[in-house]
Amino acid sequence: MSSPADDRAARVFEAFRQALGREPVMAAAGLERALQHSLTSGLALQDAVVALGLIDEPTAYRLLATAAQLPFADLRNVQPSPLARHLVPPSILRRHEVLPLAVDDKEVRYVTATPCNPEADRAVSMSTGRGTVAMLTCRTDLRAALASYAEAGTVLPAETTNGPSRDAVAARPSVLIVDDEATTRTLVRMLLERDGYRVIEAFNGRHALDIVGAQDVDLVVMDLLMPELDGYGAIRALRKQEQHATTPIVVVTTEEGPVVEKQVLDLGADDYILKPFEPTVLTSRIKAAFRRQRLGAS
């Protein structure tokens, strides 16, 4: 019995095959050659028609995007956001050949050269804690982009085992909430304790540094605008400490915009959420941060 994903893939393939048949340069013999080449070579049909020189790659993938009812993204004219790239571990980028392009509090947009790939969709969603919107792009452009990011070191930092072990995370991990607003701390505490976390509170950055020097902390939820030592300074100080060089830090703040996003990522934060936030948004981001850490340590 076929799955819904298999049924959709079959519908997309048939729609794409019919679209190719309507192309003036694709005579019936050309389409038959492409289908046979796809079977014998193991190439997807869109790559087979390109390999045979029957259609150029952008035309083939635009036709496929229309058949799959997906937006098409030209990676030569798109600049992925740093936060979107940061949230998906390199292992997922390599395994599923996907590249995240943009992200907000609710969803992440990513490109793929393979429509109807539920495994890739689940992996991106699980690693970011967000819903997903898939877009199609040319395979050659996608592989070139992934290679350039890997060479430039612009995906996640190098894999490390400094974070908590799988057993430690499973056994009631500790979360430090750093916020000068008592109401926010109380709300976050209630949400996290409900999910089984051990919660510690700090009322500013200086207080947070005192706490992490005295007890173990597995993840930090950090506000930015606080007296005495703000979140920017606290993140910078935490990242200088060997034991917290890779501790996940989720920024929760009213500060917004690409400049703020770049600042917190450059300092070493792992995610960025705007106030006011939905409770499920915060809890899903914290679970995703722990999940990315485990992927990096595996």
Describe the structure.
With 298 residues, the chain is α/β, with parallel strands linked by helices. 52% of the residues lie in helices and 14% in strands. It has 14 helices and eight strands. A five-stranded parallel sheet has the order 5-4-6-7-8, with helices on both faces. A three-stranded mixed sheet has the order 1-2-3. Helix 2 packs across helix 3 and helix 3 packs antiparallel against helix 4. The longest helix has 19 residues.
Q: Which key phrases capture this entry?
A:
alpha/beta; 5-stranded parallel β-sheet; 3-stranded mixed β-sheet; elongated; 14% strand; single chain; 8 strands; 298 residues
Q: Supply the number of helical segments.
A: 14
Radius of gyration: 23 Å
**Number of E-type strands:** 8
Spans of 5+ residues with little confidence (pLDDT < 50)?
154-170
Helix content: 40-55%
Judging from the principal axes of the Cα atoms, what is the shape?
elongated
Read across the widest sheet, the strand sequence of neighbours is: 5-4-6-7-8
Structural class: alpha/beta
User: Strand-and-helix sequence, N→C?
Assistant: HHHHHHEEHEHHEHEHEHEHEH
Largest sheet: 5 strands, parallel
Q: What is the mean pLDDT?
A: 88
